[in-house]
Each structure stands twice: as structure tokens, then as C-alpha cells.
Amino acid sequence: MGTTQLESVPEPKYWHLKTVLSEALDSEFSVGEILPNERDLAARFGVARATLRQALEQLELEGRLQRRRGVGTTVAPPRMGVAVGTDEHAWPGASGDAWQPADSMLAVPPAAVATALETGAEEPVHIVRRSRVSHGQPVAAELLYIPADSVPELTAIDAPSGAPRARAVLRELQRLELEGQDRAVELGSARADDAKELDRLPGAPVLVVTTRFLAAGRTAALSVATYRADTCRLTFGDTGGVEIHHGPERQAS
Questions:
Q1: What is the DSSP track for 58-71?
Q2: What is the mean pLDDT of each run of 10 residues along the chain (253 residues)?
């Protein structure tokens, strides 16, 4: 990178620095290359480390950089292109669903989830944990909350433990007639458990997609899916499905 000091500009210093760094990433660095440490970068550009940190965080949010455990800050590869989510009229776990069930347990959900499901504050629900891997890289983690009365025929024999239990819960859920879905997307920070599953550092930017599955006039299941913001660009098509794209030159199938 060059050694030109930043000049006075109308926008915040970190924003101007982000632009300078982005140009350097395009011209001087390759995918996977490790950036110099914060002290060296701050000295080179004549800014405080706090300003540098803000610029790096913004570039990470935009998918240009990745923070990797035990490695440092590296230049990120292009965003992957793979369709995720379910069809507007399909339950989780239906044919063609690319999510991989990992486990399921019966437990009391967070208060906000209980409110959305209209269950009692201390009423246990089935919590199915699923993950999504693309090109050998983890891209999303999901917690699917299902009230017991959405899967009334489920028995202990049908649902042992681990992935088999998760699949049994999803099979029973598909007995209901799905009336529709609604989704919301918000920017968030990776919690410790999500960060570990997604191979990110805690606090890394993520996109959280919350989906309500409706049946019999109520919320029959609630999905909270966490996507890596450095990997995923989410778009919503006519079916309501979520897609992840590469850059503008590559589309998901």
C-alpha cells in the first residue's frame, strides 16, 4: 500500500480511508492475502487505530475482508452463488431443501420466540438446528422453533436424538397444510455459538432472516437463519425464496 497521508475531506475520515483501502485491495492484494497489522496500517495512513478499525469493519461488512481465527484480516473471495431457503409453499425439510439437519431438542425458547409462536412463556418447543454449506464453506446456520402441537403425532420412538430426531420433527411438520410464509431481514452481529458454526469471530457482521410458517391461521413454526454477511448477498424473487449471488456477473441457479 502507498504511504500518502489522508487529506482533509468532508466525509468522516474512516469513510475516506475505506475508499483508499478498497482501491488498494483491488490493485495490490489477491484473494486470501493477509493484510498488514493494524499498527502498521494506521502509521502508514496517518490515522488513529480507532479510525482504521472503523474502515476495516465497514469493508468486512461489505464482503471485501474477512477476519479469520488465528490468521488475521484477509482479502475475501467473491460472494458465493447458491439458492437457499424454501419455496413459498414448502415446509423446511421438503424435497430439494439444501439445509442439513444437525440436531433437535425440546426446550423453552427465548421470550421473543414464545411470543411469536403464541406459546406459554415456560412451554418447551422443538428446536431444530440446521446448517448450510456451499463450496465446502459454511454459509448459514438456522434454529427452527416448532411448537409441540404442530407435530402432535411425534413420539420418542420416532425421534431418538441428533440428526435423526431433527428429521423426524421435520417429517411430522410436513403433515400440516402450509398456508404461507412471511420473512424479515436485519443486520446483526454473530453470537458466540453462531460464530463458531460459521467459522467467524464473535461480533462479525451477519444477516438474520426470520421466517414465519403459517398453518391453521397461526404460526406453526419459526425459523431464525443467520447468514455470513461477508459471503451472502440476499435477494427475494417472486416466490419469496432467498438467493445468494456472486458479484453482478454471476447469478444463482
A1: HHHHTTSEEEETTT
A2: 55 85 87 89 90 88 77 77 55 87 93 92 94 83 94 74 90 92 85 84 84 93 89 61 46 33
Bridge partners of 182? Answer: 212
> What is the DSSP track for 205-249?
EEEEEEEEEEETTEEEEEEEEEEETTT--EEE-TT--EEE--STT
Find all residues with CB under 8 Å of 64, minimum gap 6, and list them. 22, 25, 75, 76
Closest CA to 68 of 199, 195, 213: 199
162, 140 contact by CB (below 8 A): no
Grid cell for residue 18: 475505506
Phi-psi region of 155 (alpha: psi -120 to 50; beta: other; left: phi over 0): beta
**Distance between CA atoms of residues 158 and 151, nearest Å:** 11
Phi, psi of 83 (to 5 degrees): -75, 135
- Quote the pLDDT of residue 111: 92
